[in-house]
Amino acid sequence: MDYRKQLKSALDMVRQEGRYRVFADLKRRRGAFPSAEHFAETGSHDTTVWCSNDYLGMSQHPSVIAAMHEAVDAVGAGSGGTRNISGTTHYHVELENELADLHGKDAALLFTSAYVANDATLSTLSELLPGCVVFSDEKNHASMIAGIRNGRGPKRIFRHNDLEALEAQLKDVPRDVPKIIAFESVYSMDGHIAPIGAICDLAKTYNALTYLDEVHAVGLYGARGGGLAERDGVMARVDIINGTLAKGFGVMGGYIAGSRDLCDAVRSYAPGFIFTTSLAPALAAGALASIRHLKNSNVERQRLQERAALLKARLADVGLPVMESPSHIVPIMIGDPVHCKAVTDALLDHHQIYVQPINYPTVPRGTERIRLTPSPQHTDAQLEALIAALQELWAACPVSSGKTVRLAAE
Q1: Which terminus of the chain is more solvent-facing, meaning fewer CB atoms within 10 Å of its CB: N or C?
Q2: How many Å apart are CA 320 and CA 331, to the nearest integer?
Q3: Average pLDDT of the chain to the nearest whole number
Q4: Closest by alpha carbon to 291, among 237, 328, 238, 244?
């Protein structure tokens, strides 16, 4: 086999489909989020970031930065190894205790990312619960799909947020067969919100465990930032919660929270935990500071919701195809990968606005979009500059069928 030719062919196919991804070379400025410096062939330019998952700007918060500096000064850079050998520090222990408290659970377990936490936990549970059937929402994140697949057990895929479809599938499995219902609270590409309480009702009726991915909700919802389950008053009814330290909390890492035996079983059996170097102590310290701050401050959450509501209203006012969303996610439908990239390229090159195109496999083909994520730090002036830039692009690019953007320059 000509390996180089084969790899080039694979890349050429992605390019031909219009979904080849190009990373913007950015350098964020401490204390000036969402501003950043963009490095391009023509030189460097100021730009405004509108697609960051640092939803609350906590990566820039003084208490988070100070905690990370203090940890580096106190213990150095790396953790020293896996948790089982030499990679458990007091920062990790404190952080797990704080996360368990945040979600009202007995215990929590840290991972290097929420992706790894989902993959490791779901695959391990499938192996530890013989014959376990996993019921998975069709729009679940790739990490949940990977975990379910790697568990090699039976699975059922139910229509997105469809309680009737889920119940029909649950009815087909005997009550004494182990079951897990895996779903998300906020679906990040559409902004949809799951009916958590109603799913918990079905889980109780049909003797199933609930596995809730709160990655796009922790820090952002609830009186203390515990997520949508906290906001909706159903946190105690969810058996296993997956979360991230990299979005609302602004640092890095992932975790699960649940019963002590559950976390201990995953800790003892999951290769994705056992054989992975633990988070650097500075990351754990920064996440700890962020969680503690957001447990006691609603200012950031309130401002985020206000910014998101204003952005949605302004987009609708000027007739742009903003997708309806009850969450802080603001998607704008385009419907074609080439046009989607052309829009984001124009925003960056001509308007100094950074938004990444969202293409397959992140979303289904034909539903390509841009995904805006306003933050508490986005100003009215930055919001209006974004609206003006999008209006200019849409005016120059007639929209066919109300969905797909056709660029006049093509």
Answers
A1: N
A2: 11
A3: 94
A4: 244
Distance CA 364, CA 19 (A): 12
Surface-to-core class of residue 208, CB atoms within 10 Å of its CB (0-12 exposed, 13-18 middle, 19+ buried): buried
Q: Is the pLDDT of residue 109 over 90?
A: yes
Q: Measuring CA to CA, which residue among 240, 224, 230 is closest to residue 124?
A: 240
% of residues, the chain, pLDDT over 70: 97
pLDDT digits 0-9 by tens, 20-40: 988 999 999 999 999 999 998
Q: Which two tokens stand for residue 393?
A: 């692009």
- Identify the CA nearest to 180 among candidates 242, 105, 268: 242
Q: Which long-range contacts (CB under 8 A, 24 or more apart) does 268-272 make?
A: 269/124, 269/127, 269/128, 270/120, 270/121, 270/123, 270/124, 271/120, 272/111, 272/116, 272/119, 272/120, 272/123
DSSP, res 265: H
Q: DSSP H helical segments within 135-233, as ranges?
A: 142-151, 163-171, 196-205, 228-231
Contact 241, 196 (CB under 8 A): no
Residue 333 and residue 364 in contact, taking contact as beta carbons nearer than 8 Å: no
Q: pLDDT tens digit string along 352-400?
A: 999 999 999 889 999 999 999 999 999 999 999 999 999 999 888 654 3
- Taken in order 172, 178, 181, 182, is the CA torsion positive or negative? negative
pTM of the predicted protein model: 0.94
Point out which residues pair with 17 in neighbouring strands. none
Contact 178, 147 (CB under 8 A): no
Q: Is 399 exposed, middle or buried, given 0-12, 13-18 or 19+ CB atoms closer than 10 A?
A: middle
Asked if 405 and 334 touch (Cβ cutoff 8 Å), the reply is: yes
Dihedral class, residue 57 (left if φ above 0, else alpha if ψ from -120 to 50, else beta) = left
Q: Tell me the average pLDDT across 202-213.
A: 98
Which residues, listed in sequence order, are joined to residue 187 by a DSSP beta bridge?
192
Residues written for the chain = 410
The residues annotated with a catalytic role in the active site are: 247
pLDDT, tens digit, for every residue of 56-94?
999 999 999 999 999 999 999 999 999 999 999 999 999
